[in-house]
Design brief:
The structure is a single chain. This protein has one domain (5-192, 206-406): MFS general substrate transporter like domains (Growth Hormone, Chain: A). It has helices spanning 5-28, 31-38, 43-58, 60-67, 70-90, 98-112, 115-126, 132-160, 165-184, 202-217, 219-236, 241-250, 254-263, 267-282, 285-296, 298-305, 311-344, 349-377, 380-406. The longest helix has 34 residues, at 311-344. With 415 residues, the protein is mostly helical. The protein is built from 19 helices and no strands.
């Protein structure tokens, strides 16, 4: 595949950022297990940890808009890099403080929330439309390999000495810092756009007016987001459920969790992303995403069933569940990151992706709390059943829209 010089330059940088970001994500991916298994945190603390990414996502639209152009963009990105790295570095000194650990992860999630919207703008500026999915797929694969290595290494070390998280988490912070700094060094604009623009507080409020305006005017994007909301609810509902289930019901160690979630759970993304990216370039997002959601409905069912087996059979069923999850999430990852390009067309892609991330945050504030309440008043089995049913609903809504409206060409003129 031939790449223009500017495409090649961005792709190389994207690969490096993906690898470093993947290592950081892999190292930090066992935070919920550390909370429960090593620090013996209660269910409320684990739920709060699950709420931190969506809290940060809610500010994504404002931060994306506030980035602006030229030097201001660089200044804010550098500031976010420091925000994410310093508290994680201080975990070494506050290693048994659960509140400080939660604060450090909030800062980390706040710092990385702008990466996806920022890259959406770069894809549109530097890549030809017909190769975006394929190049993104390669970058995702690189990110996944790095994440696997980071998670496996962390799980292995934590099984040797669980207190090593106080060293591993600061290391993840350093890698995250480098990732955002490298992003800041990429040129987003040219000419007048590269000049310094003063910061205006209205920038923090304007995006939410844009959110309402875009969802009101672009009906198809609003419907797509509604369907995606259902998927997100089913997935995020399990955030407080899974770490407790792993530790209290399955009694598995750090390395097994790392292998299930970060290796088996990402094999599909690793091997299928380039192929799926090419397929995504030729498909309607409703159809592509609907079948991905369908696969995901099998995941909570198999994880729940794993408790009825013992020894290697239990692990095998758990791994099978995560293997199917990895295939479904390959499609979801592409759709989550690239569907905004499809709907935005000639409009500002970063605003569309910022809306996407912000709505992820809003549903993420609800779902883990629902999962927490289900565990509080019912059981693991009820939580897994509800998750599977909502996954099925999200798939139905996507495919119904495609086969009954989009494919026959029945889209209203006002859409």
């Amino acid at each position: 595949m031939y790449l223009e010089p500017q495409e090649k330059n961005l792709f190389i940088r994207h690969l490096i950022i993906s690898i470093l970001g993947g290592l950081a994500a892999g190292i930090l991916s066992l935070a919920d297990i550390v909370l429960r298994k090593t620090l013996r945190a209660n269910m409320e603390s684990i739920t709060i940890l699950g709420l931190l990414p969506p809290i940060s996502f809610i500010f994504s639209l404002s931060l994306t808009q506030a980035l602006g152009f030229g030097r201001r963009r660089k200044i804010i990105l550098f500031s976010l890099a420091v925000l994410g790295a310093v508290p994680l570095g201080l975990v070494y000194f506050f290693n048994y403080s659960i509140p400080f650990l939660l604060f450090a992860f909030l800062c980390f999630f706040m710092s990385v929330t702008v990466i996806s919207p920022a890259f959406s703008n770069l894809y549109k500026r530097y890549y030809r439309q017909e190769i975006i999915g394929k190049l993104f797929g390669y970058a995702v694969s690189a990110n996944v390999v790095a994440s696997m290595i980071g998670a496996y290494m962390t799980g292995y070390l934590l099984d040797k000495d669980s207190s090593l998280y106080s060293i591993m988490f600061p290391a993840g912070g350093v890698l995250s810092f480098i990732t955002i700094v490298l992003l800041a060094l990429i040129s987003f604009e040219h000419g007048k756009d590269a000049e310094f623009h003063p910061f205006d507080m209205n920038l923090l409020l304007a995006p939410y007016k844009s959110l309402r305006k875009v969802l009101k005017e672009d009906r198809e994007y609003a419907i797509f987001q509604r369907n995606f909301f259902c998927y997100g609810f089913a997935f995020l509902l399990l955030i407080p459920v899974l770490p407790l289930f792993f530790v209290e019901r399955l009694h598995i160690d750090y390395q097994t969790v790392a292998e299930a979630r970060s290796i088996i759970g990402q094999l599909g993304i690793l091997f299928l992303s380039p192929l799926a990216g090419t397929y995504f370039d030729r498909q309607n997002p409703y159809r592509f995403t609907g079948y991905s959601f369908m696969l995901l409905g099998i995941f909570p069912t198999l994880v729940c069933l794993s408790q009825f087996f013992s020894g290697n059979y239990m692990i095998a069923v758990l791994y099978l569940g995560y293997g199917i999850l990895s295939i479904g999430m390959t499609g979801v990852s592409l759709s989550w990151n690239l569907s905004s390009l499809y709907f935005a067309k000639n409009r500002d892609t970063s605003i569309y992706q910022g809306i996407h991330v912000t709505l992820t945050g809003l549903r993420g504030l609800i779902s883990p709390l629902v999962g927490y309440l289900i565990l509080l008043f019912f059981s693991y089995e009820v939580a897994f059943t509800i998750s599977a049913l909502v996954f099925a609903l999200s798939s139905f809504l996507m495919l119904y829209r495609y086969y009954k409206v989009i494919k026959p060409g029945n889209i209203p003129k006002t859409a």
